[in-house]
Each structure stands twice: as C-alpha cells, then as structure tokens.
Sequence to fold (166 residues):
Amino acid sequence: MFLELFLGGRLGFAADIIQMTGMLAVTLLLYGIFRPVSRSISLLAAASNLVGLVGIVFEVFRSNPRGENFAMVFHGTFCLLTGYLVFKSNFLPRILGVLIAFGGLSWLTYISPPFASYLSPYNVACGLLGEASLFLWLVVMGVNVQRWNEQAAAARDDTPQIRAAV
Fold:
C-alpha cells in the first residue's frame, strides 16, 4: 500500500506488479495452510482471490477503470471464506477468523461504490485490521504445527481411497 500511495508513473506500475505478485503468493500459501480444514472451501477462497487479482490486472492496464471495486468484492469473499477456515481450524485462534471475516464484510461494501465511499475510511480500516491481525499472527506466531499435522492427517484419512481391483 505504501508503494501505491507514494509512487506514481512507472514506479507506481512496478508497485502494482509487486503487490499482485505478493497477493498471488499469499493466496497460494493460505490455500496450502487451510487445505486440511476444507479442501473445497480453501480452493474456493483461493479462486475468489485470483479472480480479484485479474480485476486488479485490468485496472492496472486501465482496460477497466472500475477494476479495483471488482477486485475488492472478490477479495472480500476471500477474506470471509478465510475467516470461516480459521474459525474451523484447530491450529489458529478463532478470534482471528472472526476478525478477518469482519474485514471481508468491510471489503464487500465495494459492491456499491457510493456505499463504500460513504463508509470510507472506516470500511478500509476494518478490512485492514482484520487482514493484518491474521497475517501478523502468522508471521510472529505461526500455526500450531502439531495441531496442523493432526488436522492434515485427519483430512488424509477422510479422503476416499481408490483401490485397484484384484
């Protein structure tokens, strides 16, 4: 965000590329972390954020000047689903799930740009607080590795096994 706010022109374009690359990496990392909780919901969350990234790409290349609003709605969906996954996991505090889900609701206000503008900067602050709480926790504390391994093992046990006919 710092790069986007303070850099313009070619440097602003570079900042956008760095931002998109970072969001792609975060999306893939969170898919991997939350896949043991629910593979399908984790995949849906990742797909939602990737669609939002496509919106940012269109906005960057100015082929859709409202691409940012489009992207924020999909990012809000990503945050809501991630909040659900955090809440259902046994390796992160549930309050983080509540906070990022609340942040996701804040980003969903971009469904209506006038409404989002009316709520600004409060919706942005809530969205950033929700996301920052989860990402700060992951950077500083990480996940409870033992519980993550247990949940991953349980997810593997629940996966239907294909057995070859003898």
